[in-house]
Amino acid sequence: ELSVSLLAVIVIVCGLALVAVFLFLFWKLCWVPWRNKALSSNLAVLRGEAGCHKDSMADKLKDTGAISFLEAAVKISHTSPDIPAEVQMSMKDHIMRRTRIQRQTTEPASSTRHISFKRHLPRQMHVSSMDYGMDPPAVAEQPTSIGRIKPELYTQKTLDTEDPKKEAEKTCGKINFTLKYDYENETLTVRILRAFDLPAKDFCGSSDPYVKIYLLPDRKRKFQTRVHRKTLNPTFDESFHFPVPHEELAGRKLHLSVFDFDRFSRHDMIGEVILENLFEDSDLSRETSIWRDIQYATTESVDLGEIMFSLCYLPTAGRLTLTVIKCRNLKAMDITGYSDPYVKVSLLCDGRRLKKKKTTIKKNTLNPTYNEAIIFDIPPENMDQVSLLISVMDYDRVGHNEIIGVCRVGVNAEGLGRDHWNEMLAYPRKPIAHWHPLVEV
């Protein structure tokens, strides 16, 4: 009986061993390859998706910390094959959304002002070749206009927004006057007849007009009509006499300024009329009636006078000589009706004053004569970089000297100043003289 029992136990043990061996072989041959296949397929899916979205994710995130965090999450999925693919994908989507939200809250889009500043920065600071170790963005961010003020929506289409040039060309009514020259007494008679359709300057819708009369360039002799109350169509019918030789008439200009009288404040200027050619309508031997449009003006035009000087350049010596000859019809700056003028010449280079020189002072005159030479040493290669600023000054013993008027010559000057300079360069070693009108600073 004992041997039978022992044999039964051996049989059972051998059977269990065979079952264990069978199960081990089955696990080895079937279960392990299937698991490795599933794992490899999951990893291939993850790697393929990561490869497809790597560039777009880098462009969208632009954050090295977010990319490293995402790669770390993918590595965890590599070492944990028991995590299903659905969970890994949901984790990846969650990380991407979290990183995107964090970027939107920490890096707002820059404004247009900053974009324009960066656009000019390389030209100003020459930093285009600097490397900051950051990849440039693949797509430029377009700033939104939410919350921005758009000035064009608030532009008022009224008279306030009109072009200043058109404003200056507006007419302010008409004026009628006559001219006649007395050859025997050498006197020009100006008769102001009437004005028509003047603009209203008072609150009541009317004006109190009067007219000032000049025979330029002489501004010391001035006439004025009577003031006509509360009318836009005044009738003056007043005559004024200017003694002037006949040979000077061609160089004279008639200047009429129309004003609105104000008892308690500064008189308002309505407009002006300038007749440059007195012989335009007749020979002035008989009285001629003339109608002119009154041109809009806010301040009275002032003739500051003229200056005559010559320019001469010696290329071999690199010497520029400016000879101040004389001035005429300068503006009176003193209460005596005269000025104490002198001329100051400044050598400018790129807007900076390099040197300045002065003439002597001429006392109590509006037509000074100088004949004084001012010399500057300028190399020929620098002649296209310099210019001269000529200022006629009024000397004042007490206080600051006042500027009567200025003119400028050089390559970058305008009009006669540029032409005079080019003529000097075209004819070296030869003095070139011209009259130049003075303008305000």
| Highest CATH level, the class of the domain at 305-438 | Mainly Beta
Strand content: 25-35%
Largest sheet: 8 strands, antiparallel
Quaternary class:
single chain
Describe it:
Belongs to the synaptotagmin family. It is found in: Cytoplasmic vesicle, Secretory vesicle membrane. By secondary structure, this protein is an alpha+beta fold. Among the domains are: 173-296, Immunoglobulin-like (Sandwich), CATH 2.60.40.150; 305-438, C2 domain (Immunoglobulin-like). 29% of the residues lie in helices and 32% in strands. The protein has six helices and 16 strands. The longest helix is centred in the first third of the chain and has 60 residues, at 2-61. Residues 60-81, 104-141 and 157-168 have low confidence and may be disordered.
